Automatic annotation (TrEMBL):
Keywords: Metal-binding, Zinc, Zinc-finger. InterPro entries: Znf_SWIM. One of its GO terms (molecular function) is zinc ion binding. Residues 107-136 form the SWIM-type domain. It comes from the Bacteria. This is SWIM zinc finger family protein.
Length: 194
């Protein structure tokens, strides 16, 4: 008996993204998943990837929504192990994924932020699911994208810094990073250059 390969997530790297859309912990299938897969399969999602941030323009009929996905960064420990496993290769294989998991240094992809412009306002609306399936398909075609989504090149220590500033690529800045003494002062660009 032959089995048909998975449409989305046929590589180990893409399968991790599919697990975000179809978590193993759910007891029943998501009723939106078949429509989301159909949208992704038929080119209804236009992806823009900027490091860990992904924007998906999801078009369905005469409607369009924008889904925002932000993936968690990998730790510096994971990045070191992954660099050793990759060697001179730029494209991670399923074997590299298997060995990385066996090393104990790997943690699966996690979404830090999800948002959509649609009215549903849920963290797993149709558009976010379609975006995840489109990302999984893109990762299947180019597994190195999975590393870009996890900030592999810029992986830093995962402990917070004393200054309260955010790590590279983060959208958020801690309020404690601002100096309240000069919050209302106006400074010019030349003053910052000094």
């Amino acid at each position: 008996m032959t089995t048909t390969p998975a449409e989305f997530g046929f590589t180990a790297w893409g399968a991790e993204i599919v697990r975000l859309a179809e978590p193993l912990s759910t007891r029943t299938p998501n009723p939106l998943a078949p429509r989301a897969r159909s949208i992704a399969r038929n080119g209804g999602v236009t992806l823009t990837v900027d490091g860990r941030h992904v924007e998906g323009l999801v078009q369905r009929g005469g409607e369009a929504s924008v889904a925002h996905l932000e993936f968690s960064a990998m730790t510096s420990t994971t990045a070191v192990v992954l660099r050793d496993l990759l060697g001179s290769s730029a494209e991670p294989s399923d074997e590299v994924h298997r060995r990385l998991k066996e090393s104990g240094a790997w943690s699966p992809a996690v979404l830090d932020v999800t948002d959509c412009s649609c009215r549903a306002r849920g963290d797993r609306c149709l558009h976010i699911l379609a975006g995840l399936y489109a990302v999984a398909a893109a990762v299947d075609r180019q597994p190195s994208l999975a590393l870009e989504l996890r900030d592999f090149r810029a992986a830093t220590d995962d402990s917070p810094t004393d200054s309260g500033t955010c790590s590279p690529g983060s959208r958020w800045v801690s309020l404690t990073a601002f100096d309240v003494a000069d919050y209302y002062e106006i400074t010019t660009a030349s003053e910052h250059d000094d």
